[in-house]
Design goal:
heterodimer, A: 259 residues, alpha+beta, four-stranded mixed beta sheet, two-stranded antiparallel sheet, 8 helices, globular, B: 416 residues, Formate dehydrogenase/DMSO reductase fold
Chain lengths: 259, 416
């Protein structure tokens, strides 16, 4: 049993996103889209129905010119480490979404999902998307899909998997090379694509790993940590207003009134 | 009348052509809803107003509301079959128990049909039994709604078999009477199941620990919403049954039950509503002043037009405190207008509560840089809901015409 109150393996994958380095170029989002065969439609203007595993939010400090500051905040799934269950895994009636306690990744079994969307409702980060239409790609994109990731059918929920297939691939390679499977690390597509190296990824349980060190940085914060969801995605920012906004310290003067 | 042989003895019913026209109107609405439902099944849920922000919408709200209003079935059964031995005054419910069972039956089966539209993969609906997640409140809902719907069918069967023509068949009569003799067991089983079912519907919202609007602490594995949903359902369910009965009296221009039945239901509803509304106010105060600030929210963060603070006021004061007061005082209860208006307010209150706990709970943004969104259901959501109401009216109409629902109808309408 871990300090999080649930069974835990030696590996606990997590991500650190340095907002001071993020330029909002959205390369992470595009790379995720291509890597994970995320379908899209000709008209994607309705953002409440478009599928985006790595969404980039725009934050500002709500001040007037001269004092105005802004930042971008890429938001993958937080792969919550909350005791007992993540908010989404707790509610799924058919065990379609579960947290692998061996590595901390919250996955989703698409052929088991009944599409009740209870997990969408449970997630405060809006990290889950529903397939409102049959997935389709214009010619010749269908021939360019990633064969390692299954496309999702209409009527099921999908979300960021921390590019779980890359972990499987890295472990398969390690197995063939007779290396320790639990020493294997990998980089999700978003981190690989980031031109400023704002995204770090690795084993949070390994004190020597970069993510474990960055997670303890004084600039580090987590989104909505007051809700006790224990996200495994950490953010870094030197700006106090960003850190406070991330945990709803002053939502009345800053956040909710934009809408 | 061509169907005279099917109509219970000694009572009068409207001419068959008039009844036929009424059925055609209802069937038109049902056909419209079925068309919309089939379209949703074939073309998918993008036809609805749902989106990734509003994962739940009108389907779930209507289901929660109709199931709460259908609670009159199990709770009246519990009072009549369970408690009337201890409190003989409750035997009066005998005069309305058949109607209560049918109201429960139509509410539950109608809700089940709409639930099928709500899931993105309806062909996998059975996964809920096969891959059940015992931690999920929705699993509890799935099991309880199925079992209780079966119990309601068993409770409805002897009422169907009491039809004149069917009773003439010996085996049907014996089967019906045997079931009737066992009804106390089914009623109490239904009570147990439905208590859990109503509660688990409340639990669906209350366990969302990352959604501060909906989340509640609680007792053992159940959040307080579990108990509040049970209380609000057993308070408003009998009120809804009484309203249905009054509506039938208005349409048929007959007296179907003694006023003493309404009087008894008014006392029951008033008492239960008073307990509910006190606990609801305590819950709201704790949620607003103590729990939410811990999560970085205050009450004002939860309410924004069109989901304004007026909803809270209407739910608790107008549809909670006012009907409670009116039903508890014998003098106000004497007035039919006040009594039935109070019943109506209680039903509206529980519907608003289910709306708030379903839609407003997810409308209020959690992330500070998130936006408020508004949910607008489409005709593909309204049509199946209206069809469900038409289905309820259809079954009630057929049952009233051909089954002896009201044991006192003959005496109360001597000229008929």
């Amino acid at each position: 049993m871990s300090e999080q109150g649930h069974k835990q393996g030696a590996v606990r994958f997590g991500m650190v996103i340095d907002l001071d380095k993020c330029t909002g170029c959205m390369a992470c989002s595009v790379a995720c889209q291509a890597e994970n065969n995320i379908s899209f439609r000709e008209d994607e203007s309705n953002k409440l129905r478009s599928i985006s595993w790595m969404e980039v939010f725009y934050l500002d400090n709500d001040q007037d010119y001269a004092n105005y500051q802004y930042t971008y905040l890429p938001r993958p799934c937080m792969h919550c480490d909350a005791p007992h269950h993540a908010p989404c895994t707790f509610v799924c009636p058919v065990n379609a979404t579960t947290r692998d306690e061996e590595n901390g990744i919250v996955g989703h079994i698409y052929p088991r999902c009944i599409g009740c969307r209870y997990c969408i409702v449970a997630c405060p980060y809006h990290a889950r998307d529903f397939n409102w239409w049959d997935p389709a790609w214009p010619e010749p994109m269908e021939a360019m899909l990633n064969p390692e990731v299954s496309p999702r059918m209409r009527g099921v929920v999908e979300k960021c998997t921390f590019c779980h297939h890359r972990l499987l691939k890295a472990r398969a390679k390690a197995f063939l090379e007779e290396q320790d499977l639990y020493e294997v690390t990998y980089m999700p597509a978003c981190g690989e694509a980031c031109p400023t190296k704002a995204i770090s990824f690795g084993n949070l349980n390994d004190a020597e790993s970069q993510v474990a060190k960055l997670a303890k940085d004084p600039r580090a914060f987590r989104l909505l940590s007051k809700l006790n969801t224990e996200p495994k995605v950490y953010y870094l920012s030197k700006h106090e207003w960003v850190r406070k906004q991330g945990d709803k310290h002053f939502q009345n003067s800053n956040g909710n009134k934009r809408g | 009348m061509m169907d005279k042989a099917l109509i219970p003895e000694g009572v009068k019913r409207c001419p068959l052509p008039v009844f036929g026209i009424w059925l055609l109107v209802l069937l038109a609405f049902i056909g419209w809803g079925v068309y919309a439902g089939v379209a949703v099944l074939i073309q998918a849920l993008h036809l609805t107003g749902l989106n990734d922000y509003f994962g739940f919408g009108l389907y779930i709200t209507a289901d929660l509301a109709i199931i709460a209003l259908g609670a009159g079935a199990f709770f009246s059964g519990f009072l009549y079959y369970g408690l009337s031995r201890l409190f003989p005054a409750l035997k009066e419910l005998h005069k309305i128990i058949n109607l209560a069972v049918i109201v429960g039956f139509v509410c539950y089966t109608g809700a089940l049909a709409v639930l099928l539209l709500e899931v993105g993969q309806p062909l996998r609906a059975w996964f809920g039994y096969w891959h059940a997640n015992v931690h999920s409140m929705l699993t509890e809902v799935i099991f309880c709604i199925t079992c209780y719907a079966i119990v309601l069918v068993i409770e409805y069967v002897p009422i169907i078999l009491s039809n004149r023509k069917l009773e003439a068949i010996r085996s049907a009569r014996v089967f019906g009477h045997t079931l009737h003799d066992l009804m106390a067991i089914f009623a109490l089983t239904g009570t147990f199941l439905s208590f859990f079912h109503q509660g688990s519907l409340g639990g669906v919202a209350g366990v969302l620990f990352a959604r501060p609007f909906a989340y509640r602490t609680g007792f053992f594995i159940w959040p307080w919403t579990f108990f509040l949903f049970i209380l609000s359902a057993i308070a408003s369910g009998p009120a809804f049954t009484a309203l249905v009965c009054r509506s039938m009296e208005a349409v048929t221009r007959k007296k179907l039950v003694d006023r003493s039945v309404y009087e008894l239901i008014a006392k029951i509803v008033g008492t239960l509503l008073s307990i509910y509304i006190v606990l609801k106010i305590v819950d709201t105060v704790y949620w607003a002043l103590f729990q939410s600030p811990q999560f970085g929210f205050n009450l004002g963060d939860y309410y924004r037009a069109p989901y304004g603070m007026w909803l809270l006021f209407v739910e608790i004061i107008v549809c909670g405190v006012l009907p409670t007061a009116a039903l508890l005082y014998p003098r106000t209860r004497q007035s039919n207008i006040v009594m039935f208006l109070s019943f109506l307010l209680a039903c509206v209150g529980v519907t608003i509560n289910r709306f708030v706990m379903t839609i407003q709970a997810i409308a209020a943004p959690v992330m500070p840089f998130d936006k408020w969104e508004v949910y607008v259901p489409t005709v593909y959501e309204w049509a199946p809901i209206i069809a469900m109401i038409a289905y309820c009216a259809l079954i009630l109409s057929l049952s009233y015409r051909y089954l002896p629902l009201f044991p006192r109808e003959k005496e109360l309408n001597p000229t008929s």
